[in-house]
Description:
The complex is a heterodimer of chains A (323) and B (262).
Chain A: E1 4-15, E2 18-29, E3 33-37, H1 44-51, E4 59-64, E5 67-68, H2 73-79, E6 80-83, H3 95-105, H4 110-123, H5 139-151, E7 157-161, H6 169-184, E8 188-193, H7 196-202, E9 205-210, E10 213-218, H8 220-225, E11 229-235, H9 241-252, E12 257-258, E13 262-268, H10 274-284, E14 288-294, H11 298-306
Parallel strand pairs in A: 3-8, 3-9, 6-7, 7-8
Antiparallel strand pairs in A: 1-2, 1-4, 4-5, 9-10, 11-13, 11-14, 12-13
Chain B: H1 2-21, H2 24-44, H3 56-68, H4 70-86, H5 88-94, H6 101-127, H7 136-164, H8 167-173, H9 177-182, H10 195-203, H11 205-217, H12 229-232, H13 234-259
Amino acid sequence: MEDAIMYTEDVRKQFGDVVALDGLDLVVPSHTVYGLLGPKGAGKSTIMRILATLTRPSSGRAVVAGFDVARDPADVRQVIGLAGQDASLDDELTGRENLLIFGRLSRLGARGARRRADELLERFGIAHAGNRLVGTYSHGMRRRIHLIAGLLRAPAVLLLDEPTTGLDAHSRVEIWESVRQLVDDGTTVLLATQYLEEVERLASAVGVIDQGQLIAEGSPAQLKAQLGRHVDVVVESMDHLPSAMARLERLTGRCPETDGSRIVVSAVERMPTLPLIVSELDASGAVIRNVGIREPGLDDVFLTLTGRNIKPAEPVETPGAVW
Amino acid sequence: MVNLLADGWTLTQRRLFRLRHKPGTLLTMLMMPSAFVVLFGFVFGTAIRVPGTSDYRAFMMPGLFAMTTGTALTTTMVEVATDQARGVMERLRSLPTHRVSVPLGQSGAEGILGAYGLAVLMVCGLAVGWRPHNGVLPTLFGIGLLLLFRYTLAWVGAYLGLVVRSARTAAGLTPLTLPLTMVSNALVPTDRMPVWLRTICEWNPLSSMATATRKLFGNPGAPGPDAGWPLTHPVAASLLWAGLLLLIFVPLSARRFARAGL
């Protein structure tokens, strides 16, 4: 684990009867964005809170930049920045005042805090709003102040807990842009999110977390490769459908599915070329409106791994519930 | 140590920064004391007999000074609970800040705002005929004692705020403190109370505080020789109360802050 800036070993966390983390092993390499992907309630925020020294693991070990979060929390706090949903701002102060206070508490000194806050407000494009009360901010502006608050000390590790949840597409892209810049500057980012697109855009490594455990890990591309690719055919009519499906099966070695107007062959490992697929379909006599080879999304990964869809907006059903 | 004081001061300023955006708060802080002076000095006061003096308002003002220190407890409790509910506390706990600095900052701000509140109340008192009679030093000592007491109660409030955690609960508890401050000799002499109640009143820290203030300001209402120890030695008792409460609640709040959420 020499190039790992942060790792956890068999971390468990229990709140009463509820097991939030159930033996989580996580290794986060330096200078990367590591995406922690999982639905609501999977344990993402809990591990973030543990790494930020806000709560302690019930058992197991978590180490940040060589410091154990339970034994040396004060040292951990020196190297992390937290931009989470939990850690909030004072609505009755301006954005800049919030930052000045956090900066001074981070030992930047009064002048250092002022310089750093102004620099970051400028860089994140909200210098104009710095002197307005946080209570009047839009979601996107708040998130950016959160992000800046996590960056005041130029932390070695930034813990980024759902930075774009509830944001519009435009603000989301802007936050992503800022996060990319950070990694260029040498920060390691642990990004917890329920958005597949977010890890695909930002992360070089992804851990999929479900019910307090890491259930898969790899680069977004590796995870996708586990699934193969999809052939996606839209037919004009149902004529010759069985024949088309039989030919596709012979070609790909996988069993196609159809809803009558569409044929999907999932998880194809050795994908034939598109012209070959088209000529086979043509030979079947079916009239084809559209043929495509599709990369699986990370939602496919999650569906394959857990048998469940990720539903970002809703709480996760408890196991055994009727649905 | 230097870090601790610097962090505490930063957090004290946080409260003061807020006043900058809501200067109206300073005006509301004017209304309460003046309402108290009118209510107790003129509405109830005309019906209250204090042995040994006909000047009820001279008796009452030190009582009000002592009584209003109780607001330090409630405002700090609400402030701390609000911070916690909002998640500001989480942010502060993730910073390399000294653990004690948050309650230290809150109590510091309360001390400063308390000095302003006391000044307002004193001006009200002067307007209705109250005067300190013992010269500069005892008067300053009295003021210092009141501020110390207020500061102490802020620590108690900080602890309670960390315990209740919800701003609404904290706000709900606030009115309960008024009767607690009134079960004392702040506004009425205790000598005609039933013995059990009188004992409770005499051991209420606010009674020592009110009696000490009366003594230091040279105002009427000194308790008789049969009164309990806290009233016959009010200054010592007030200092002891403050020391005892700080001894209990400073470590308790610090521990609670460091451990919150663990």
